[in-house]
Design a protein that fits this description.
With 659 residues, the chain is α+β, with helices and mostly antiparallel strands. It is 68% helix and 11% strand.
Length: 659
């Protein structure tokens, strides 16, 4: 028995369009989107394009969704941003890149949560549950399903509630000890789906309820719900009916009513043929043959088994091939046709071995998924550590501010008491000036001077688009393995050492530090005040960082300690910059330029400064560079990359000295 979970968007529904009609709609939307203004209508159209493409052209769907996300962020249309992130996740889901799927769906869920859309949050929780469940992490999958159900209940969204209840029921149905809980959730899904007229889900839910009763040998109850399932499918598109008809056939065979069993399997086959459902056709043929085998009519069993064998090979369903081979081996053996019996017994052994290997491959895939997920969680833990350090720094600064405010109160009290004393008044003014300077310094530690002034004057900072900005990323090689061998204090001490030096270098070359993320450091040139020298400034900064790292590495190695290695990547292009947050301001930058700069770093080499072609064209007259050729960067594609080698000496002009 197979109990199904499904992605809450129900991907199959998107496949009901004919290819021709869908292609026409895609072409029409592509033409329209080029004419639209940069507003919410364009975001929605880009998302619609992504929704039509993700099942057949996931890479193109991801591209359109990324464009929708970036525009949505630029115009603050967050509902469109959330939907774009969801479609990006669906694209990666179709590509079986489940780590990226989870990442984008979690981002989408966070945006839905920020705008108070509980239905959207429930949708994403349900989808995440299906990914975890299908990858073998059943406990996490069920946890997400339960959260999806609770969130849908808050939103009073019966559709999302039904989806979550159905998947919880399917998860609990895999263990006989939780059949009762499974039945409860399938019943809930059935009732809610019937309320809002989703008869396809009604058909699925009642078919699964029937299976549970069948497994508990409550055949009368099973038949009642199988019949409800058929009634529901008559009110929907009917495509699920062959599945239920085959289950009824198995039920009658179990009860010994063989003619009825054959009739229902034959009805299932005829209907599956109409819907071109070759999986159910194969199961119908095996069901008919299995029934003949139970009747000991071995000769009649052979033909449907052979037909099932052909279909199972065609569609690549080893489970159904296994049923056919086992039945054929038994039927030929009973007919004393030992040559064929031996043939199909050998084929059965081969398919069993193939299924066993496939299951092992699936286990390896699940182990890889768990490993990649754990690796991502380690990165998140490092980010959390960095966040904790930042929060500690904010608390320290807050305590300092409170101290300053306390000092202000004390000074005001002294001023009231000793207002006639000119010298004391002058002293107090001097203290106040110092404290104001300290407060100003604290603000400038968090935000660029121009942005801080705008916030102080206007109460908000408007995001700005920059046509040409250079972005630099650094990352330490093997940081996860290095950090495992160090205490938290040692790890923070080393990071502070390097990042303090990077801060000095960034200041030296007139760049703007953006943020640190775990062991990664990010800065940019040409913002918030544009300039023409930023490509050269940022290359010089990258070389200075590598020089400092090499110096520290030699010092550590002389002491018998492990030195750290650094990768540096740079790209130049357009970005959007602004202040995010409401309580703790942070100056940040967004756009594809940031993504490409990150890829420059991840595709670089230790000790090198890896730059994109865009940056190379701006510095090639000042620096000799080694062309690496076109290198594939994840989510970007093939891109020309260069290593900075050395500065080109400036040729001096000599003047002749007159006599």
């Amino acid at each position: 028995m197979k109990f199904y979970t499904y992605i809450a968007l129900i991907i199959l529904n998107t496949l009901t369009l004919t290819s021709f009609a869908q292609d026409q709609e895609i072409d029409s939307l592509k033409a329209v989107v080029e004419t639209l203004k940069e507003d919410s209508t364009k975001v929605n159209t880009l998302n619609e394009l992504s929704s039509l493409l993700y099942t057949t052209q996931p890479d193109l769907a991801i591209m359109y969704a990324l464009e929708a996300m970036e525009l949505g962020e630029q115009i603050r249309f967050y509902k469109g941003v959330a939907l774009a992130l969801k479609y990006m996740g669906l694209g990666y889901y179709i590509k079986s890149d489940y780590i990226e799927t989870i990442e984008y769906w979690k981002q989408s869920m966070a945006v839905y949560d920020s705008i108070g859309d509980n239905s959207g949050v429930s949708n994403l929780l349900n989808n995440l549950g299906t990914v975890y469940y299908d990858q073998g992490d059943e406990a996490t999958g069920v946890e997400y399903y339960l959260k999806a159900a609770r969130t849908a209940e808050k939103a009073e969204d019966k559709y999302r509630m039904s989806n979550a209840y159905f998947n919880i029921g399917a998860a609990y149905a895999t263990n006989p000890e939780t059949y009762e809980m499974s039945l409860d959730y399938f019943m809930r899904a059935y009732n809610f789906s019937e309320d809002f007229g989703d008869y396809y889900v009604v058909g699925l839910a009642t078919a699964n309820i029937g299976e549970l009763f069948f497994l508990e040998e409550k055949y009368d109850s099973a038949l009642i719900y199988y019949e409800k399932s058929l009634e529901a499918y008559e009110l929907s598109d009917g495509s699920g009916a062959p599945y239920t008809l085959n289950n009824i056939g198995k039920l009658y065979a179990k009860m010994g009513e063989y003619p009825s069993a054959i009739k229902f399997h034959q009805d299932a086959f005829d209907l599956a043929l109409e819907y071109k459902d070759k999986v159910q056709q194969t199961q119908s043929l095996n069901g008919i043959a299995d029934t003949y085998l139970l009747m000991e009519d071995y000769k009649s069993a052979i033909e449907p088994y052979l037909e099932a064998e052909i279909l199972a090979k065609e569609i690549g369903t080893p489970d159904e091939l296994q049923v056919a081979y086992e039945g054929l081996a038994q039927a030929y053996s009973e007919l004393r046709d030992f040559n064929n019996a031996f043939k199909y017994q050998n084929l059965l052994t081969e398919i069993n071995y193939e299924i066993y290997n496939a299951e092992n491959d699936k286990k390896i895939e699940r182990m890889q998924f768990t490993y990649e997920l754990d690796k991502r969680e380690e990165e998140i833990t490092l980010l959390t550590t960095e966040k904790a350090l930042q929060e500690a720094e904010v608390k320290r600064q807050r305590a300092m501010i409170y101290g300053i405010l306390g000092g202000l109160v004390l000074i005001m009290a002294i001023a009231v008491i000793m207002y006639r004393n000119y010298r004391e008044k002058a002293r107090i003014n001097k203290i106040l000036d110092k404290q104001n300077a300290e407060i100003e310094s604290l603000i400038l530690n968090i935000l660029p001077k121009e942005i801080a002034r705008e916030l102080q004057a206007e109460g908000e900072a408007t995001p700005r688009y920059y046509e040409n900005v250079s972005v630099l990323f650094t990352d330490f090689k093997g940081f996860s393995s290095i950090s495992k061998g160090m205490t938290p204090n040692e790890l923070v001490e080393h990071l502070n050492d390097y990042f303090h030096a990077f801060d000095d270098i960034v200041g030296q070359f007139g760049l703007e530090k953006i943020k640190t993320i775990g062991d990664a450091y990010m800065c940019a040139g040409g913002i918030p005040l544009p300039n023409k020298t930023h490509p050269l400034d940022i290359v010089k900064a990258g070389l200075a960082m590598q020089e400092y790292i090499n110096k520290r590495k030699r010092e550590y190695e002389e002491k018998g300690e492990v030195g750290w290695d650094l990768r540096v990547g740079i790209h130049t292009g357009p970005i959007v910059a602004g202040v995010v947050g409401k309580k703790k301001y942070a100056y940040d930058i967004w756009g594809n330029t940031v993504n490409i700069a990150s890829r420059m770093e991840s595709n670089g080499e230790v000790g090198k400064v890896n730059i994109s072609e865009a940056t190379y064209n701006l510095v090639k007259d000042q620096y000799k560079c080694h062309h690496r050729g076109k290198i594939y960067a994840k989510n970007v594609g093939d891109i020309d990359m260069y290593f900075i080698e050395e500065e080109i000496p400036v040729e001096k002009e000599f003047e002749s000295v007159g006599a």
